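Q: Given only this backbone (278 positions), what sequence would you predict?
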């Protein structure tokens, strides 16, 4: 599920407004750095990672002690697949400002993706101590992914519950809950979770709608499932979920293949880890 574009856009707007209010208090070099920082952040949002890297390097050269610049530079390296450099910049961002929870969350995410689970937990748990951090719901999501990587499903459920408690319309957490319920054949709970994951900013994403239809099929409600598959095939014909929906419709139309047997197919589509924050 592609949640990153919207999340990054909102983050970029917040950073730009915050930065502009402080311009009058900055030195000439810091003002130039702030301009490069704004350009680089906008380019990160627009996925122009080479340009973002160029501007953020210039920002860092002009203002090397700015933790936010280091964080965004780290993520620019991340998207250019330069992981050692990304880690170096994120660690420096935390060193410059230990209260930079965005940088901590990104650093923990990098550790998690590299299977450095102990290091990841240190960063995520430190973020939980920041009671004013507005993206705590993403941190809880990442703690859930870490718990799953360590084989602790109970803690993963607990962290996902905390994630949606922090932000009830947070699509990835609802979607992951749906996947986990499905894996445990708890299809009623899965149906509810997938319905929630398809609301709000994720209403145009086909993945939750496909999984809603599959949950209905698993609950032996084939007529409702077929209607959902048809709706999905019509709305998203060129996506893989549109293709999968067409296959399910064909199966349902074939009386020789239709039965009350539970359908256990699950298209796992969650983000492995939620990052970045800038």
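A: Predicted residues:
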């Amino acid at each position: 599920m592609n949640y990153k574009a919207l999340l990054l856009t909102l983050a970029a707007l917040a950073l730009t407004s915050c930065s502009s209010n402080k311009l009058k208090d900055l030195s000439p070099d810091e003002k130039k750095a702030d301009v490069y920082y704004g350009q680089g952040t906008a380019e990160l949002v627009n996925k122009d990672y080479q340009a973002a890297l160029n501007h953020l390097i210039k920002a860092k050269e002009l203002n090397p002690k700015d933790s936010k610049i280091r964080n965004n530079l780290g993520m620019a390296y991340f998207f250019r697949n330069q992981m050692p450099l990304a880690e170096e910049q994120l660690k420096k961002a935390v060193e410059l400002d230990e209260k930079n929870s965005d940088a901590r969350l990104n650093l923990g995410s990098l550790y998690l993706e590299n299977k450095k689970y102990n290091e990841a937990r240190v960063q995520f748990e430190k973020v939980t101590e920041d009671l004013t951090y507005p993206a705590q719901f993403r941190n809880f999501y990442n703690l859930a992914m870490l718990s799953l990587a360590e084989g602790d499903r109970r803690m993963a459920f607990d962290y996902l519950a905390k994630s949606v408690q922090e932000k009830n319309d947070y699509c990835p957490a609802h979607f992951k809950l749906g996947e986990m319920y499905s894996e445990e054949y708890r299809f009623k709970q899965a149906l509810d979770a997938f319905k929630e994951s398809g609301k709000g900013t994720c209403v145009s994403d086909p993945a939750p709608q496909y999984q809603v239809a599959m949950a209905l099929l698993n609950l032996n409600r084939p007529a409702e499932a077929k209607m959902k598959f048809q709706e999905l095939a019509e709305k998203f014909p060129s996506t893989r979920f549109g293709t999968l929906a067409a296959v399910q419709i064909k199966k349902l139309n074939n009386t020789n293949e239709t039965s009350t047997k539970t359908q256990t197919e699950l298209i796992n589509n969650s983000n492995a880890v939620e990052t970045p924050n800038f």
